[in-house]
Amino acid sequence: MAILKRLAETARPSVAFTLDGKPCEALAGDTVLTAVLTQAERLRLSEFGGAPRAGFCMMGACQDCWMQREDGTRLRACSTYIEPGMRLRSSALRPAAVPGTLAAAWLEGEAP
Q1: CA–CA distances in Å: residue 38 to residues 2, 32, 49, 111
Q2: 111 pLDDT band (50/70/90 cuts)?
Q3: Are 31 and 78 in contact (CB under 8 A)?
Q4: Distance separating alpha carbons of residues 112 and 110, to the nearest angstrom
Q5: Which pLDDT value is given to residue 102?
Q6: What is the pLDDT of residues 2-60, one digit of tens each?
Q7: Which are the contacts of 93, defined by CB distance < 8 A and separation ≥ 6?
Q8: Backbone angles phi, psi at 17, to 5 degrees
């Protein structure tokens, strides 16, 4: 069940995106935070204990709304606008699964 329910500005064009492999829709001009929370019951899972998180300050100061794209790049959900075709994850990839990280290089035998 979604945390947020849209009450206004419903006539804006829709934007398709993916959350955890599931197709979703937001409205043009939504932040990633708004887009995700109108579709889901959490923004992400905490990397420190697995607890659900939904953002905190809503202005980019608290670091609680970091999310990952499917390719492993991170973004702040409260200050990043949703884009058509964006592919998001609510749980972080393991560092070894993110190409270009030191952990991935270690697994590929490229360690220093």
Answers
A1: 5, 10, 24, 42
A2: very low
A3: yes
A4: 6
A5: 56
A6: 888 999 999 999 999 999 999 999 999 999 999 999 999 888 877 777 788 887 877 77
A7: 68, 72
A8: -145, 175
Residue 13 tokens, joined: 């064009």
Give the three-class secondary structure for 60: coil
User: Are 20 and 90 spatial neighbours (Cβ–Cβ below 8 Å)?
Assistant: yes
Residue 40: which of 50, 55, 28, 29 has the closest Cα? Answer: 55
Rounded-to-integer distance, Cα 10 and Cα 1, Å: 19
Length of the chain: 112
- pTM for this one? 0.78
